Amino acid sequence: DSGVTQTPKHLITATGQRVTLRCSPRSGDLSVYWYQQSLDQGLQFLIQYYNGEERAKGNILERFSAQQFPDLHSELNLSSLELGDSALYFCASSGRLSTDTQYFGPGTRLTVL
Amino acid sequence: GDSVTQMEGPVTLSEEAFLTINCTYTATGYPSLFWYVQYPGEGLQLLLKATKADDKGSNKGFEATYRKETTSFHLEKGSVQVSDSAVYFCAPPVSNDYKLSFGAGTTVTVRA
Predict the structure, then answer these.
(1) pLDDT confidence of residue B41
(2) What's the CA gap between B73 and B71, in Å, rounded?
(3) What is the DSSP letter of B52?
(4) Which stretches of chain B sit within 8 Å of chain A by CB?
(5) Omega before B92 cis (within 30°)?
């Protein structure tokens, strides 16, 4: 158990819909990262927050957005969903330093029908 | 910018075989380097790390040495088990802008 929790575990929805994925970091970790893992793209970095502020942006689509709240939990919002958005979405957390280990949650499996 | 090149898979081995997965990186300076592992149906977890040049990380029988001369961090295990079947990711150095992507990883299957 990494100490990072993600909900829900599975999500099935239709094209055009909007969903919210939730992540609670390990106690004490200020950084939260979001990743998308699909069979054809591998594990792609989406976005990172540090203590409520956006720190880095990766290959995140404009239809996707995220935020980190004062209690440090984070939400990833995916809108106007397409079939290609079906993937595993992982959240990870780490400490203050860029060299700190990232601890990954169990992931949310999103299926868009 | 900083990046990593990892050996592509899949790799299929018999139990007790020797495993090596190559990983080379380009980076400014000598950043910490990591190997992560993803077992079936799970998220990634840290396998081992090395925080400076010439360090050796080790865990669960796996080893990797941070070699600055060859800018490499190859993962090795002398005798693999079926339970080592997983996807292995060499994590790229965290660049100054913190952007990083793990890529596809290397899928390892160990057969009894």
Answers:
(1) 85
(2) 7
(3) S
(4) 31-32, 34, 36, 42-46, 49, 51, 89, 91, 94, 97-105
(5) no
- What is the number of other CB atoms lying within 10 angstroms of the CB of residue A60? 16
For residue B10, say if its preceding peptide bond is cis, omega within 30 degrees of 0: yes
CA distances from A61 to A13, A92, B51, B59 (A): 18, 19, 33, 37
DSSP state of A63: T
CB contacts, 8 Å: B89 with chain A: 43
**Count of other CB atoms within 10 angstroms of residue B19:** 19
Residue B93 is given by DSSP the state P
B34 phi and psi angles, rounded to 5 deg: -135, 150
SS3 A69: coil
* Cis before A106 (ω within 30): no
Per-10-residue mean pLDDT for chain B, 112 residues long? 79 97 81 88 90 91 92 94 95 60 84 96
In the sheet that A74-78 helps form, which strands lie side by side, from edge to edge?
A: A5-7, A19-24, A74-78, A64-68
